[in-house]
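Hi all, posting the design record for the shared folder.

TITLE: backbone redesign
STEP: 1 of 1
STRUCTURE INPUT:
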């Protein structure tokens, strides 16, 4: 018997059930036993007559009526059903959560947490809890779907432990288990599901988080070490004098921070080691020029450079910025995107292969199979979180061993960046070019919108332009477009015919988007209504107003990105947040936006308020995702894990030592990963 046994060896798991479990990512016994709950419900039942009016309680009972949803007003609804506890019938209502209806099943047990209304004998529901908790105080709650229910999953996990519990080996080195007084693996795994008390739960989690971070660090540091050790990386022997002349001719003096990161990058270029560097800098901190210098250096060494960006608009814009900085006789640039015409594309591919193009700028189009380089020496990707790891790897493999630079404006606190991106070096531009007028940020409530529009009219009358951002409605693309269209109509009605209003949204064809952007750039449109498609990169210095609708629906980092679209010229600029936050945290977030223009301060605050899951959600990742560990609240464990991993890597051939067998096994690379044990 082995933990890697297929889940179907358990009694009660037929082909159908196994199929359903796979949808949750559970294939093996080990995956079942480590499918941890995401929270626990603390259920303490009370007698109805013991409960005070307006007291928050959990009530448990049988559902005795079908749920009924009534809708009223805009986005408002109320869902009601009745449940029976002992012999009393209780009315339960939930406001504005109509989707909870599916969780109310006639004749099933249910536990509801809410506020008790003693007069009406009703419960104002806040949360539905698991009812199947066998009388335990802590009921584990799992992410499940319609086909796998909480109760049956719990049952299955128990069966799994009964059969396989004794086959859970410890794999962490004994020294570490002792040093940090970690709960043994077997006990910890069990207690993650069924803790007897909060302390046990805490200890189990501490052990599991350590294990998770430690293995991650061990692996990442292994990768980094191997990359570093490889002397067959490229040494880009750039021409120091030409590079100096180039930087001296720039239209501005580099900030100290830009100089510092440029030096770090150039050192990496010159060295025969392989560069894997993350360049972080707030919006507007001047990352583009740093990229331009690195690409220029690469060219003087006789290599080609590539700059990959996530959208066509951005590619176009980077192309323009680079061309302004370079002397066209000296640097041959080209643009390759999805909409490059076939004939032109063919020519570009040919020139890339022969080396007639020095620097190519483009989108995903750069990583198509038929794109070949003569001597690719440097790959830069902008807004790295938008590209998958694979896409980055493909581009990298087009060169011999090109150096790689990732640029991002997502400001991740330094300590976090260093620890979380175990395999990369980090450079940070922590200073803005001098002479910027700080953007003034105001927060208003929706009823004040018209007053703001009147004020905006005056801004436009000064010859300036403005953005209006509508929130992306994730659940429905159709709703999203509808919403943007409505706002567009409202704006048009207000500003026409004196000013022209344009609309940009995700459903539009690339070419259409491009045209609208161009119109806005040329000031044929004064106002641009848009969903967040403009979030990254666009540069229209004449735009001085950024109006963000439903601002509380955005993350702080995103709001900050959007705000960075203005304040790019020499004129005073404004960011107006329109929001009616529903809770204290929302209010706090709007306030902090008005108080600071510093992306790093904001990101720390955002992490504190919302946690990394929300901040670096799956969608805009780049930051590794952990199953249990939280890189912010568990940052101490992360740091310890990092140190311990690095100590182990200082030992010669540690993976052959008996003590480390277990962990070496655990981090053994897959076939498609490169070997680093040698
Ligand atoms: P980022 O990509 O980091 O958001 P950009 O590279 O687009 O920022 O730079 C924003 C603006 O600042 C550009 O117009 C650029 O020309 C200008 N800029 C960059 N570095 C400096 C500097 N050292 N001094 C003055 N202006 C600068
Ligand atoms: Mg940029």
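Okay, here is what came back for every position:
SEQUENCE:
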């Amino acid at each position: 018997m082995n933990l890697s046994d297929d889940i179907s060896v358990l009694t009660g798991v037929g082909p159908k059930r196994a199929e359903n479990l796979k949808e949750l990512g559970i294939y093996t016994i080990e995956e079942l036993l480590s499918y941890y709950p995401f929270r626990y419900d603390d259920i303490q039942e009370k007698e109805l007559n013991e409960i005070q009016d307006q007291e928050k309680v959990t009530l448990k009972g049988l559902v005795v009526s079908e749920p009924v949803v009534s809708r009223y007003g805009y986005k408002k609804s109320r869902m009601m059903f009745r449940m029976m506890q002992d012999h009393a019938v209780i009315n339960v209502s939930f406001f504005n959560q109509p989707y909870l209806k599916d969780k109310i099943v006639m004749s099933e047990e249910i536990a509801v947490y809410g506020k008790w209304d003693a007069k009406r004998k009703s419960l104002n529901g806040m949360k539905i809890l698991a009812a199947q908790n066998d009388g335990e105080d802590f009921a584990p709650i799992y992410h499940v779907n319609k086909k796998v229910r909480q109760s049956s999953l719990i049952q299955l996990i128990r069966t799994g432990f009964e059969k396989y519990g004794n086959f859970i080996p410890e794999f962490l080195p004994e020294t570490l288990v002792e040093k940090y007084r970690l709960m043994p693996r077997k006990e910890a795994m069990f207690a993650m599901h069924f803790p007897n008390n909060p302390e046990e739960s805490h200890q189990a989690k501490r052990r599991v988080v350590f294990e998770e971070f430690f293995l991650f660090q061990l692996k990442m540091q292994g990768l980094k070490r191997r990359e570093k050790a490889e002397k067959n990386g490229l040494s880009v022997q750039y021409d120091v004098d030409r590079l100096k002349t180039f930087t001296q001719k720039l239209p501005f003096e580099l900030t100290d921070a830009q100089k510092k990161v440029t030096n770090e990058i150039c050192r990496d270029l010159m060295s025969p080691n392989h560069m894997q560097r993350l360049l972080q800098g707030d919006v507007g901190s001047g990352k583009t020029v740093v990229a331009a210098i690195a690409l220029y250096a690469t060219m003087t060494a006789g290599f080609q450079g590539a700059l990959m960006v996530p959208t066509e608009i951005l590619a176009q814009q980077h192309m323009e910025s680079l061309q302004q900085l370079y002397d066209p006789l000296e640097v041959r640039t080209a643009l390759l995107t999805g909409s490059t015409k076939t004939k032109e594309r063919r020519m570009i591919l040919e020139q890339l292969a022969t080396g007639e193009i020095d620097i190519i700028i483009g989108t995903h189009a750069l990583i198509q199979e038929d794109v070949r380089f003569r001597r690719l020496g440097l790959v830069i990707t902008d807004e790295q979180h938008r590209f998958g790891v694979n896409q980055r790897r493909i581009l990298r493999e087009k060169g011999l061993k090109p150096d790689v630079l990732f640029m991002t404006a997502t400001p991740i606190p330094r300590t976090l960046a260093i620890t979380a991106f175990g395999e990369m070096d980090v450079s940070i531009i922590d200073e803005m070019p001098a002479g910027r007028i700080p953007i003034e940020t105001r927060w208003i409530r929706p009823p004040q919108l018209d007053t703001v529009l009147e004020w905006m009219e005056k801004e436009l009358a000064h010859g300036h332009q403005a953005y209006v951002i509508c929130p992306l409605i994730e659940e429905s693309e159709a709703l999203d477009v509808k919403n943007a269209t409505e706002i567009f109509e409202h704006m048009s009605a207000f500003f026409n015919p004196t000013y022209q209003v344009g609309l940009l949204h995700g459903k539009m064809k690339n070419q259409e988007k491009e045209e609208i952007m161009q119109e806005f750039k040329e000031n044929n449109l004064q106002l641009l209504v848009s969903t967040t498609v403009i979030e990254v990169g666009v540069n229209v210095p004449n735009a001085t107003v950024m109006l963000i609708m439903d601002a509380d629906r955005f993350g702080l980092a995103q709001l900050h990105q959007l705000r960075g679209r203005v304040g790019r010229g020499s004129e005073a600029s404004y960011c107006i947040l329109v929001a009616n936050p529903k809770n204290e945290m929302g209010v706090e977030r709007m306030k902090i936006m008005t108080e600071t223009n510093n992306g790093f301060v904001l990101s720390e605050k955002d992490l504190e308020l919302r946690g990394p899951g929300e901040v670096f959600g799956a969608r805009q990742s780049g930051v590794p995702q952990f199953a249990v560990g939280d890189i912010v609240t568990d940052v101490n464990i992360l740091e310890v894990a990092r140190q311990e991993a690095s100590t182990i890597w200082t030992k010669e051939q540690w993976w052959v030592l008996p003590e480390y067998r277990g962990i070496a096994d655990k981090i053994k690379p897959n076939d498609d990963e490169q070997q680093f044990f040698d």
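COMMENT: The pocket of magnesium ion (ligand 2) is lined by residues 287-288, 382, 537 (CB under 6 Å).
Let me know if anyone wants the other runs.
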